[in-house]
Specification:
- The protein has about 230 residues and is of the alpha+beta class.
- The protein folds into two domains: about 140 residues, Jelly Rolls (Sandwich), CATH 2.60.120; about 60 residues.
- It is about 50% helix and about 20% strand.
- It is elongated.
Length: about 230
């Protein structure tokens, strides 16, 4: 990033974003903003406090958003006049706004830059009706998003609760779980007996182990019966 340089109204007028502004409005923009050169690298980072509004004059930028911990590129453009950064500074609570995407310059680039509070005040002074309309849209979307998010969470919780209730109230499913556990334990015990039989154990020792196996099976059966009677 290089030093700030003044902007010229005639250059701003060549950008589609500003082409319909009056000479007085362009003069206000230039008096409160500046031109900044950026080398390839980050311009703003998603989630950080939104402090500046950027308009591309020349160069190229990419925009990306986080998804599953990865940066997913959503836009790559060299179109003059595209904007990014604190473009919502004039709507909602400006003190709590953060960048909603990450922006990088992919080559040496020039931007028109304004501090977010200054850009917000310019919009409110010059386009009050538009600001009211856009602010209303922003508030409405945020309210709708919260309502939808809460409803989706309740629906997901309901589906989980219904699934658990079905499992707990289904004796057949409980019996199948108990039988599967019993088969696993018995199979493990038989495997151990086969391993012992290959050694030098006496018949009496093996008979004792078989009795121990039977006792284990009976204990498991009793615990399973108690489990089923409690459903």
């Amino acid at each position: 990033m290089t030093a700030k340089t003044p902007c010229e109204p005639d250059e701003l007028r060549t950008l589609f974003l500003f082409e319909a502004l009056s000479d007085e409005q362009l003069a206000v923009l230039c008096a409160n903003g500046h031109i900044q050169n950026y080398e390839p690298g980050p311009i703003c980072v998603e989630g950080e406090l939104a402090t500046c509004f950027y308009v591309l004059i020349e160069g190229e930028l990419t925009m990306s958003k986080l998804s599953g911990g990865q940066d997913i590129e959503t836009v790559r453009t060299s179109q003059r006049g595209v904007y990014c950064g604190a473009w919502r500074a004039f709507t909602g609570n400006t003190q709590l706004q953060s960048y909603d995407a990450s922006v990088r310059a992919t080559k040496p680039s020039r931007f028109f830059v304004m501090d977010a509070p200054v850009f917000a005040q310019f919009m409110k002074d010059q386009f009050p009706m538009a600001v009211h309309l856009l602010d209303g849209i922003a508030v409405g979307r945020e309210r709708a998003r919260r309502i939808i998010d809460n409803r989706e969470k309740l629906l997901a919780l309901g589906r989980i609760s219904a699934g658990l209730t079905h499992q707990l109230n289904n004796p057949a499913a409980a019996s199948a779980r108990a039988a599967a556990e019993l088969r696993g334990r018995v199979a493990g015990m038989r495997q151990k007996l086969r391993m012992l039989a290959d050694g030098t154990f006496t018949p009496d020792a093996l008979r004792g182990l078989v009795r121990l196996q039977q006792e284990v099976v009976e204990q498991v059966a009793k615990s399973t019966t108690h489990e089923l009677s409690g459903i």
